[in-house]
Amino acid sequence: MNRYDVGCLARRLTTGFYTHCAALELVRGPHALKMLPVSVLTDTPPVGLIRRKDDTPHAYDWTHHLQAARTEHDLMAELDRAWLVSALVLLADNLAAENYFDRAPILEMVRHLRNGVSHGNRFEIRTPDALLEHPAHTRGAACISPTGATFEITPELHGGPVLFDFMGPGDVLDVLISVGTHLLNRRGHPTDGSTAAASTDTTREIPDDIPSRELGLARWLSTEHGEWGRLVHPQTDRVRRMIQTARTSDVDALWRLARPMRPSALPRRPTPPRRPPDHG
């Protein structure tokens, strides 16, 4: 997979985790029991079906497992962990196939997280000197906590727990978003099946005083990619609606989308001078 493809994968994984969280919220909601499927047989609980490779059904008690999802909080945490472990392994394996491209700190962060979750959820930092050449951190990443909290891999983390001690689910999600933004901000679509064609970055200059949340979103909106309009940003309903309705890569339109987030921090676009009326 080239840079563009791996960036798209990071975004699909982002959307996938949002979908996972939304489904679990729905399960825990007060109306979940009203959505039980109708049982084919009288006086029998509804049954769910999972298909095997040979197309035979693997059946399970729908009501029992719905109740488990509603009441077993440890199960919910493990579901989040299982999803994010799978996402990190899949993303890191594809990054590794390309030698982690430019070895940016956010990509190196994925490498260390993947190694940790694959070794009993414990960090494996066997060559600490390598961190001097290829640091791994989230400083300057496209998406971080509104508090400005960042993460860095240091030799002292060796043997320590990864999920959800070093990072929480939302922090891993920030990493997935940042990886997608980093890879896809090298504008252009692949032309030869192996490399993404670079093009001139026409994104407007964004002031340094915009908080990282808004800056990350502005960068995200300015990425020319066909799928970004379907992604969901976790911060606010307003931002979510903006992204869901955005369907253009026109720079002026993107600027108008970014402006409502922080009008005081974004410079006003110059107003063209009015032509004097022609009385001749």
Tell me what you see in this structure.
The protein has 280 residues and is mostly helical. It has two domains: 172 residues, no CATH class; 64 residues, no CATH class. It is built from nine helices and two strands. A two-stranded antiparallel sheet has the order 1-2. A hairpin with a 5-residue loop joins strand 1 and strand 2. Helix 1 packs antiparallel against helix 6. The termini are far apart. About 25% of the residues have low confidence.
In short:
By secondary structure, the protein is mainly alpha-helical.
Write the layout of secondary structure elements.
Layout: H1 3-28, E1 47-51, E2 57-61, H2 62-71, H3 73-96, H4 105-117, H5 130-133, H6 169-184, H7 212-221, H8 237-245, H9 251-258
Antiparallel strand pairs: 1-2
Helix pairs in contact: 1-3, 1-6, 3-4, 3-6, 4-6, 7-9
Assign a percent range to the helix content: 40-55%
Quote the average pLDDT.
76
Secondary structure category = mainly alpha
Main pleated sheet: 2 strands, antiparallel
Number of helices: 9
H/E series:
HEEHHHHHHHH
What is the first-to-last residue Cα distance? 64 Å
User: How much is the radius of gyration in Å?
Assistant: 23 Å
User: What characteristic shape results from the CA principal axes?
Assistant: globular
Oligomeric state, counting identical vs distinct chains: single chain
Note poorly predicted spans: 187-215, 222-236, 246-270
Number of domains: 2
Read across the widest sheet, the strand sequence of neighbours is 1-2
Strand content: under 5%
Strands, total number: 2
